């Protein structure tokens, strides 16, 4: 078939939305549409009418018509099938089949028409595919616009907060009559004299806040995003509209307010122990490279707990390199494992993750989890492989343990004879998964045969896991107020995982 045009028109022949698929002058199309009502006969039951040159195939849509104009040489059965699809597309985008609704949804209808017909020929698509193709383009644009506006607002808020901090530092320096302090913790969550509220300064001061709109403060230079329409829509209403359509977009903080992520399971004082391990082990069990690094961060969400002390207990007998932040009292930490500020009258900063203690261990000879792989050559050019794991540090609880074992290239067959947990073959790797490894379930084996293969095909083995127990045996015993030693309720989370663990 050759489809000349698809049109949604009124009974008088007025075209509301029309899409032309072949080269033809506008006057010719308007003439064909104007002739359509004159060819309609009262009481006619057919859904098509022909002239000497073209065929009109139509279907009533309440007070409107879905009209296709084709050549006379086209197959009438295909014409009717195409017409049915067009007639289903129009109600898909128009809730009410009225002239106003069709005009409002003109662009969506044109996009859908282009998905059904290309260069006059019907595409092999159904209604679900048409809906998916049309939404795909608009969905990406909405997400891009929403994320861009959110990033602009967040950047403007950060600039405003930084301007306030600089103004506050200048005022405090002027009151003290000396230079302002630049002591800070760095990018991981810093604090210093400029961000701590001083209890001794009781005089009020007037803070001058920049009143420049956020969009004028943070306007991208050199590049501009594509915008549909002449006016930019408001970001809040746009994001609300996206949510009503089922999309999930990040939320920008309101101007002038600090953005904070609230965790329901976190107390006003929250401690986070995070450890990372980089380990390379040999096939014979020797440790070629071992590096354990850890960080303790403190987050305070209530200003009444700003002046506190954290009591730590270190039961690790290994040569851990411990390092406190320069603002933390080192003597108190060495004497009793206390994390407290040198200047006890100053509080910890609020609503920020503050790194207070780091530890490091290099050259360890005892791995948390030992992997023993024994590939042996078998008859017929294959290999019998036995892999065993054992938990060396029994105080640990490792979850979601995954061993990624390489397989030889080519058409090799793999037969697994014995295993703990579960296994799956993904491409050129055999993935062995164990849900939990702890003191009660600290060993396990995997036996399989690969043919053809050689022993070197099964290395390096990559190991990963997650754990809520700490490798370094450093624990938080309690948190107290710095003034009177009153106990403070606190929460904590522990994360221990390998950045890289290979058996080579």
From TrEMBL:
Region (Disordered): 153-237
Membrane topology type: Peripheral membrane protein
MHD domain: residues covered: 266-504
Function field: The coatomer is a cytosolic protein complex that binds to dilysine motifs and reversibly associates with Golgi non-clathrin-coated vesicles, which further mediate biosynthetic protein transport from the ER, via the Golgi up to the trans Golgi network. Coatomer complex is required for budding from Golgi membranes, and is essential for the retrograde Golgi-to-ER transport of dilysine-tagged proteins.
Protein name: Coatomer subunit delta
The keyword Membrane appears for this protein: yes
Keywords: Cytoplasm, Cytoplasmic vesicle, ER-Golgi transport, Golgi apparatus, Membrane, Protein transport, Transport
InterPro entries registered for this protein in UniProt: AP2_Mu_C_sf (IPR036168), AP_mu_sigma_su (IPR022775), Coatomer_dsu (IPR027059), Longin-like_dom_sf (IPR011012), MHD (IPR028565)
Keyword check for Cytoplasm: yes
Family assignment from sequence similarity: Belongs to the adaptor complexes medium subunit family. Delta-COP subfamily.
Any GO BP: Golgi localization
Source domain of life: Eukaryota
Gene3D superfamilies documented for this protein: 3.30.450.60, Mu homology domain, subdomain B
Biased amino acid composition, Basic and acidic residues: 153-175
GO cellular component: COPI vesicle coat; Golgi membrane
Subunit structure, as described in the record: Oligomeric complex that consists of at least the alpha, beta, beta', gamma, delta, epsilon and zeta subunits.
Subcellular location(s) per record: Cytoplasm; Cytoplasmic vesicle, COPI-coated vesicle membrane; Golgi apparatus membrane
Source organism: Plutella xylostella
A Pfam family of this chain: Adap_comp_sub
Polar residues: bias regions: 209-221
């Amino acid at each position: 078939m050759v489809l000349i045009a698809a049109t949604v028109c009124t009974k008088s022949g007025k075209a509301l939305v029309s899409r032309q698929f072949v080269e033809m002058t506008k006057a010719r199309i308007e003439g064909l549409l104007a002739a359509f009502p004159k060819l309609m006969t009262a009481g006619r039951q057919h859904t098509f009418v022909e002239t000497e040159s073209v065929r009109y195939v139509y279907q009533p849509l309440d007070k409107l018509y879905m009209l296709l104009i084709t050549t006379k040489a086209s197959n009438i059965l295909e014409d009717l099938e195409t017409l049915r699809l067009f007639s289903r597309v129009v109600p898909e985008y128009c809730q009410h089949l009225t002239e106003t609704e069709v005009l409002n949804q003109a662009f969506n209808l044109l996009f859908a028409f282009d998905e059904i017909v290309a260069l006059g020929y019907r595409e092999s698509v159904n209604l679900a595919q048409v809906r998916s193709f049309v939404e795909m383009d608009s969905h990406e644009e909405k997400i891009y616009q929403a994320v861009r506006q959110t990033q602009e607002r967040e950047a403007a808020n950060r600039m405003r907060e930084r301007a306030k901090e600089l103004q506050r530092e200048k005022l405090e320096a002027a009151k003290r009559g000396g230079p302002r302090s630049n002591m800070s913790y760095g990018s991981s969550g810093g604090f210093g004299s400029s961000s701590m509220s001083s209890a001794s300064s009781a005089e009020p001061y007037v803070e001058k806040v920049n009143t420049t709109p956020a969009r004028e403060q943070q306007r991208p230079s050199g590049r501009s995003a594509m915008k549909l329409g002449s006016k930019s829509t408001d970001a809040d209403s746009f994001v609300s509209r996206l949510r009503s359509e089922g999309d999930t977009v990040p939320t920008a903080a309101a101007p002038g307010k600090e953005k904070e992520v609230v965790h329901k399971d976190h107390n006003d004082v929250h401690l986070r122990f995070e450890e990372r391990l980089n380990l390379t082990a040999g096939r014979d069990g020797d440790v070629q490279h071992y590096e354990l690094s850890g960080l303790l961060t403190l987050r305070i969400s209530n200003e009444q707990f700003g002046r506190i002390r954290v009591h730590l207990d270190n039961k690790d007998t290994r040569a851990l390199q411990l390092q406190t932040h320069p603002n933390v009292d080192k003597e108190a930490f060495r004497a009793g494992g206390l994390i407290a500020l040198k200047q006890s009258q100053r509080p910890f900063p609020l609503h920020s993750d503050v790194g207070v203690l780091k530890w490091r261990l290099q050259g360890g000879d005892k791995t948390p989890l030992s992997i023993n792989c024994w590939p042996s050559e078998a008859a017929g050019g294959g290999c019998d492989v036995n892999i065993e794991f054992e938990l060396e540090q029994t105080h640990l609880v490792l979850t979601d343990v995954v061993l990624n074992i390489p397989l030889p290239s080519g058409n090799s067959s793999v037969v697994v004879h014995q295993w703990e947990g579960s296994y799956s073959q993904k491409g050129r790797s055999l993935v062995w998964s164990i849900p939990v490894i702890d003191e009660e379930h600290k060993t396990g084996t995997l036996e399989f045969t690969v043919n053809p293969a050689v022993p070197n095909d099964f290395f390096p083995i990559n190991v990963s896991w997650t754990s809520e127990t700490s490798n370094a045996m450093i624990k938080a015993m309690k948190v107290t107020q710095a003034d009177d030693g009153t106990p403070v309720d606190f929460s904590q989370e522990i994360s221990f995982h390998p950045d890289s663990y290979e058996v080579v």
